[in-house]
Specification:
The chain has 6 helices and 8 strands; from the N terminus they run E-H-E-E-H-E-H-E-H-E-E-H-E-H. By secondary structure, it is α+β, with helices and mostly antiparallel strands. It folds into 2 domains: 79 residues, SP0830-like domains (Alpha-Beta Plaits, 2-Layer Sandwich); 90 residues.
Length: 174
């Protein structure tokens, strides 16, 4: 049995309402075990003996249960931890955000991403993620998920550092 972390993008905003209790029940009906959600923004920890096709199964399950498709990413716990451990070790944790990337990105767009960073912001491209330090607030940065997707030609979903580390803890790692 392997542990996975799923990140669902864009739910409980813009009309895509998803109750976490209903999502847990639907995923348990797939045979997934120890399904747990964290807050209402699409964070799921679960265990499964399956390893292939989990994203497609989860998306189909969500379509069947809630009537719409979503962008999502599922990580083997070890891969998720490897990604978040790449974060630079400075600054106040509350100002860090991580955008998990899905697919091959267009490297030529990276300079444009960096060119719009605010005077107090720092941005780092690591394997599978972009780490953004924004002490003036995520709400005012120009380096948000939609901008990253447009410039790098890759899907992504962003979480603040508290959520990113809490998911690791809920999966049983400190």
């Amino acid at each position: 049995m392997k542990t996975y972390i799923a990140l669902i993008r864009g739910i409980n905003v813009g009309g895509k309402v998803m109750k976490m209790a209903e999502l847990r029940a639907a995923l348990e009906n797939l045979g997934w075990m120890n399904v747990e959600t964290y807050i209402q923004s699409g964070n799921v920890i679960f265990q499964s003996m399956e390893g292939m096709g989990l994203e497609e199964k989860m998306d189909q399950c969500i379509q069947n249960t809630f009537g719409y498709s979503v962008d999502l990413q599922i990580f083997l716990l070890e891969d998720y931890v490897r990604i978040i451990h790449q974060r630079p070790e400075h600054g106040d944790d509350k100002f860090w955000h991580v955008t998990f990337l899905k697919g091959e990105l267009k490297r030529e767009g990276w300079e444009e991403v960096c060119s719009v960073k605010g005077p107090n912001e720092e941005v780092y491209l690591k394997e599978g993620a972009i780490f953004l330090y924004c002490p003036d607030g995520y709400g005012i940065t120009q380096i948000h998920t939609n901008f990253i997707e447009k410039k790098l030609g890759v899907k992504g979903t962003t979480r603040n550092w508290k959520t990113s580390t809490k998911l690791k803890e809920l999966a049983g790692l400190k």
